[in-house]
Specification:
500 residues, alpha+beta, 6-stranded antiparallel β-sheet, two-stranded antiparallel sheet, 10 helices
Length: 500
């Protein structure tokens, strides 16, 4: 854009004072010196209003979606735990039979019963107590109690609770990952809006200057002091400025809508605080080498711990499938009181039985296939663990590379800004001594404005890349509170390293 403006104005001496004032005011409003000092890997500096945007996004519509997804996982976790707790149920039974007993031809029995079911091993123990009204007896009212248990033996470890806890831990890690992505997305939305607003303001100013230049050219055409080709060129420049202003307006509108999608608010509704705020990562120390960052990530990432837990659970599931593929062995026991009831008497002894049941499967394709499926799940879990370790290492190295590239580009941009300032000084001195043109001064000021905007964009990108690095190693920013939906009643394995 600088070359275009320079070529357009280099040989023109008919700028109006109004056009000059517009560019001068634009240059005064632009920040030439960056508001942020050099950024280290352990801290960043952002405007206060950007921190407000981040916190607003963490409680906005996108956060609600993440909460609902976690709520579904937490509900499934509670259902799984409820199946492992004692259960109590009541029932009512009524029936008629003939013969009713060994010495009774016919009769009717009815009454309530209460059953207590207690998890035992991988099975359940049930205790039933009941009372009933009977016909055909000398005693019209009687009671009966029963006890029964069936407990699997040699069937492998019972990992139902650990599986439920693992699924909840995965859901919690997914929720935290969504929140971290939301932080970066909010930073990106704010930076895009600020950049789009600057571009739109600059495009509007350039359009105004193009209109004034074309208006002066029309006056010169009436006097016959400008050629048709030159007038056509100025008309083309005006059309190009119109297109550039329309594109800048659209980008500004789209960036504003993206910001509203995250926060449901426009940027002017936030506190207009551009005071820089320093944010530090929650780490005991900042590594100084890429290998140190990778080692830190492998020791802190909770999703890596969940992946290792998934491998352990898959190994236990395979052990269980292999043990149950060929035989089933269960311990059974029961009791009934009273033992027997006749028409005129009742045997109040307790009938007790206990034993072992064993079934051997000579050929069962379904059980054999369950072993194959368990082996495939174990292989998939191991592969997922390996892929995750490599992905973590790649993400850390990629973040460090992006940071290095941004720092290099930022240094070059700042050096170029110093050169542009020096060229502006030379242009001003030449203009004041009568050796240069006023248009050269305006072009140099415009170059400073554009370079200053580029520096701000690079600083914002560098801050986002630092946050991405911190998230890559499983670290968060203490000043940014992630909204955690689970409470103390929910099990949260591995949350000690996530700030939960």
């Amino acid at each position: 854009m600088f070359c275009f403006i320079h070529r357009r104005f280099n040989r023109r001496l008919f700028f109006t004072s109004c056009g000059l004032a517009l560019l001068l005011s634009l240059c005064v409003e632009a920040r030439i010196d960056g508001p942020f000092p050099g950024i280290e890997l352990g801290e960043i500096t952002i405007p206060g209003i950007q921190l407000e945007v981040i916190n607003e996004a963490l409680s906005g519509p996108m956060h609600e979606k993440a909460v609902m997804a976690y709520a579904n996982a937490a509900s499934r976790y509670r259902v799984a735990l409820a199946a492992l707790r004692p259960q109590l149920r009541a029932s009512v039974q009524a029936g008629a039979a003939s013969p009713f007993g060994d010495k009774i031809d016919a009769g009717v029995a009815a009454g309530p019963s209460i059953t207590l079911s207690v998890p035992t091993g991988q099975g359940r123990t049930e205790i039933s107590l009941g009372a009933g009204v009977r016909t055909g007896y000398a005693q019209p009212i009687g009671a009966q109690a029963s006890f029964s248990v069936k407990m699997p033996l040699l069937s492998g470890p019972d990992n139902r609770r650990k599986t439920a806890e693992h699924e909840l831990a995965v859901a919690q890690e997914t929720y935290l990952a969504d929140q971290r992505q939301l932080i970066v997305r909010a930073m990106q939305a704010y930076d895009d809006f600020v950049q789009a607003e600057q571009d739109f303001r600059l495009a509007a100013e350039l359009l105004e200057l193009a209109k004034q230049e074309y208006g002066l050219a029309l006056e010169r055409e009436e006097r016959g002091s400008i050629s048709a080709a030159e007038l056509f060129r100025l008309r083309s420049s005006l059309n190009a400025s119109l297109d550039a202003e329309a594109q800048a307006r659209r980008r500004w509108t789209e960036s504003r809508e993206a910001l509203r999608e995250l926060t449901t608010r426009d940027l002017p509704e936030f506190t207009d605080s551009t005071e820089p705020i320093r944010l530090r990562v929650d780490l005991p120390e900042t590594p100084s080498t890429p290998e140190g960052w990778v080692a830190l990530a492998l020791s802190r990432r909770t999703d890596l711990k969940n992946a290792r837990q998934a491998v352990s659970l898959a190994e236990e599931a395979l052990m269980t499938a292999r043990l149950q593929a060929k035989r089933e062995v269960s311990f059974t026991a029961g009791a009934q009181w009273p033992h027997e009831t006749e028409e005129t008497s009742t045997d109040f002894r307790t009938r007790v039985h206990a034993g072992v049941e064993a079934s051997f499967f000579l050929w069962d394709g379904a059980r054999s296939e369950e072993v194959v499926a368990a082996e495939l799940r174990l292989a998939a879990a191991k592969k997922a663990l390996e892929d995750l370790e490599r992905a973590i290492e790649r993400s850390v190295h990629a973040a460090l590379y992006d940071i290095a590239e941004s720092e290099r580009a930022l240094r070059q941009a700042r050096e170029q800004l110093e050169q542009d300032k020096l060229l502006l000084t030379v242009a001003q001195e030449r203009f004041e001594s009568g050796l240069g043109l006023q248009q050269d001064v305006i072009a140099r000021r415009l170059a400073i404005v554009q370079q200053s905007n580029r520096i701000h964009a690079l600083e914002a990108r560098l801050a986002r890349q630092c946050v991405l690095l911190w998230h890559a190693v499983g670290a968060d920013i203490p000043e940014i509170q992630i909204n955690i939906p689970w409470d103390s009643e929910d099990h949260c394995p591995g949350c000690e390293n996530t700030g939960a």
